[in-house]
């Protein structure tokens, strides 16, 4: 029986580590073809090689999601090489948390550029392919911080609320094209994400919190597989999950 994952062409931004990498490995093991984007090309190339060596199909394309042209190139390369785009996972993101009064304006801009505009560029790149196909699936990565605003997380939370708003707007608009839309909001998952903080107090607090409660990245990969594997007429719109021990 088909798992509704086998043979699908899945584009993942931020595939060089953490949730993106774990998802690429999990979906490849289930027969998906992967198109991997990130800035660290050494990492996505060796991931693509490893997936191919295990019998999978994968392509690595250097991608900075703050560049609309580069996200388009990533998606178009997938469509040209494999003939279609079935799933677009807008996953790239960063979380340099700090209280607003520290005025880390560069980091605010970076989060807006990567976490919001990067998702919009992913939509812009994949939507024309999916409209033409009259089929497709967007999976956008929000966060528990897209539901709750923790101290020091104002800007990060704002970007993740925005991802949920965009996903819901997209969901309503793409009905005529038979496109599914899922937003996934993870709690603390063990990845390189806490390393993006530069404010020493906040970074220390978040690292300790993650060391205490974070769960492995394949928890996210399984949530992605669950959403994709549903029959085409079933659209899983929101998944919110946390470590069992996480309070906020
Ligand atoms: N881990 C958690 O607890 C958690 C919880 C909720 C939500 N999330 C969300 O999950 C997503 C993935 O994060 P992660 O936890 O897997 O962290 P991670 O291990 O730090 O991975 C982040 C990924 O984003 C990519 N990235 C960052 N800036 C980019 C840019 N300008 N262009 C292209 N790629 C870029 C990185 O690749 P390069 O540096 O190679 O470009 C990397 O592959 C993020 O959206 C994050 O907000 C994570």
Strands across the major sheet, in which order?
A: 3-2-1-4-5-6-7
Note the run of SSEs as H and E.
EHEHEHEHEHEHHE
Structural class: alpha/beta
Portion of residues within helices = 40-55%
Helical stretch tally:
7
Low-pLDDT ranges: none
The overall average pLDDT, rounded, is 97
Distance between the termini: 40 Å
How much β-strand is present in the residues?
15-25%
Bound ligands, each once: NADP nicotinamide-adenine-dinucleotide phosphate
Radius of gyration: 17 Å
Strand tally is 7
* Molecular shape: globular
Q: Note the main sheet.
A: 7 strands, parallel
Account of the 3D structure:
The chain has a seven-stranded parallel sheet, sandwiched between helices. The mean pLDDT is 97. It is an alpha/beta fold and 248 residues long. The chain contains seven helices and seven strands, in the order E-H-E-H-E-H-E-H-E-H-E-H-H-E. Helix 1 (18-29) crosses helix 7 (218-229) and helix 4 packs parallel to helix 5. NADP nicotinamide-adenine-dinucleotide phosphate binds next to helix 1.
């Amino acid at each position: 029986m088909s798992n509704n994952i086998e043979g699908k062409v899945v584009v993942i931004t931020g595939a060089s580590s953490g949730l993106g990498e774990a998802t690429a490995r999990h979906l490849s093991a289930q027969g998906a073809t992967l198109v991997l984007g990130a800035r660290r090309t050494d990492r996505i190339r060796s991931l693509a090689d490893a997936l191919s060596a295990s019998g999978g199909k994968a392509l690595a394309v250097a991608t900075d999601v703050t560049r609309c042209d580069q996200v388009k190139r990533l998606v178009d390369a997938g469509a040209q090489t494999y003939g279609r785009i079935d799933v677009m996972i807008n996953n790239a993101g960063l979380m340099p948390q700090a209280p607003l009064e520290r005025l880390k304006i560069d980091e605010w801009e970076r989060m807006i550029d990567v976490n919001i505009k990067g998702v919009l560029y992913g939509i812009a790149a994949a939507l024309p392919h999916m409209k033409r196909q009259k089929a497709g699936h967007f999976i956008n990565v929000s966060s528990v911080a897209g539901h709750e605003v923790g101290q020091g997380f104002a800007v990060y939370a704002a970007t993740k609320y925005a991802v949920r708003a965009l996903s819901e707007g997209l969901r309503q608009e793409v009905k005529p094209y038979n496109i599914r839309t899922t937003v996934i909001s993870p709690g603390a998952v063990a990845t390189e994400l806490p390393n993006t903080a530069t404010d020493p107090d906040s970074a220390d607090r978040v690292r300790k919190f993650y060391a205490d409660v974070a769960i492995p990245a394949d928890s996210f990969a399984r949530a992605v597989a669950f959403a994709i594997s549903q029959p085409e007429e079933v659209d899983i719109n929101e998944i919110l999950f946390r470590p069992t021990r996480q309070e906020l």
